Amino acid sequence: MNEQAELVRFGEAFRRARERDGVSVADLAAKTGIDAQQINALEAGRLDPGFDVMCALADGIGIRLSALIPDAWV
Hints:
Layout: H1 3-20, H2 25-32, H3 36-43, H4 50-61
């Protein structure tokens, strides 16, 4: 799997988890301090979030980061 496909997979997994927990992008942005446009870009697979951002977003929706990381990244 290439890097772009992995970013898309991560973004889709994150979006599903966020929506499942009923957290809006605006609420998550306010809670984490991460810009809503960045969150949207991450969910679309257009942004490589970096470890700190991934941790903050996972914390923001109350899930373990390991639940979102594609197997190919470990």
